[in-house]
Amino acid sequence: MAYNLLKGKRGIIFGALDEKSMAWQVALKCQEEGAIFTLSNAPIALRMGKINELAAQCNNAKVIGADATSTADLENVFNESMEVLGGKIDFVLHSIGMSPNVRKKIPYYDTSYENFQKTLDISALSFHKVMQSAMKLDALNEWASVVGLSYIAAQRTFPGYNDMADAKALLESIARSFGFQYGFKKKVRVNTISQSPTLTTAGSGVEGFDAFYHYAEKLSPLGNATAEECANYVVSLFSDLTRKVTMQNLFHDGGFSFTGVSTELVEQLIQSK
């Protein structure tokens, strides 16, 4: 059911790759709620993914290639988006993350620092660069909303998540620091959402993902949140209903983040003795 929560709003969605990606689901939900927006991803992702299919489903949304580590590319995204959409931007989704160490299965204790720096630049510093570019160009309307996607590995250790955990911790810190500055300057809200383990192309590349996905499902009172459910939550943060929510890391994980152990898991452990 649609509520027209984003009617008349303009946005930019970074990171949609295919139907499994959370950015893809956010785009569909924003479309359903009345928004107009552009789509952006790295040139290699545009070639490998299916973003043009998504654009066609979203009133032929403009697709703008950009390296999220390049301020010049990001400034182009904002300038072109404002031109195409006919005004300043009301919401931005940052759904960008990649770790060469994870992809190459290099353990955390034996990290390649060159790879580590790439992880931080792509997965966290790009969040800062997105907002720095927007502020420089005065591209966001007052009360605009910027959301980055995070994960509980920023607070707790999940070995297979490797240096992405450090990147997510930095991402959340940037949300607080930039949210403080942008709030005073332009009433812009900046938040991160810490999502359940989700069956995305990126998530499934983490070692041991399947086992942890099922573990989280058993531990969470409400079960794991899906990508579509995450999209609903993102839309609420883009809407005017959450104007005074900023600088927060908001858990969207079915209660996993505050559950010590579940009865089902305890029973399984007793039976396995």
List keywords for this structure.
273 residues, Rossmann fold, 45% helix, 10 helices, alpha/beta
Explain how this protein is built.
The structure is a single chain. The chain is built from 10 helices and 7 strands. The protein has a single domain, classed as NAD(P)-binding Rossmann-like Domain (Rossmann fold), CATH 3.40.50. Strand 5 (140-150), helix 7 and strand 6 form a beta-alpha-beta unit. By secondary structure, the protein is an alpha/beta fold. Strands 3-2-1-4-5-6-7 form a 7-stranded parallel β-sheet, with helices on both faces.
Would you tell me which CATH topology applies? Rossmann fold
* Number of E-state strands: 7
Sheet having the most strands: 7 strands, parallel
> Could you tell me the radius of gyration in angstroms?
18 Å
Helix content: 40-55%
When the domains are counted, the total is 1
Give a short summary of the structure:
Helix content is 45%, strand content 15%. It has helices at 22-32, 43-48, 51-57, 71-85, 100-103, 113-136, 164-186, 209-219, 227-238, 263-271; strands at residues 10-14, 36-41, 63-65, 89-94, 140-150, 189-195, 249-252.
Per-chain topology:
Layout: E1 10-14, H1 22-32, E2 36-41, H2 43-48, H3 51-57, E3 63-65, H4 71-85, E4 89-94, H5 100-103, H6 113-136, E5 140-150, H7 164-186, E6 189-195, H8 209-219, H9 227-238, E7 249-252, H10 263-271
Parallel strand pairs: 1-2, 1-4, 2-3, 4-5, 5-6, 6-7
Helix pairs in contact: 1-9, 4-6, 6-7
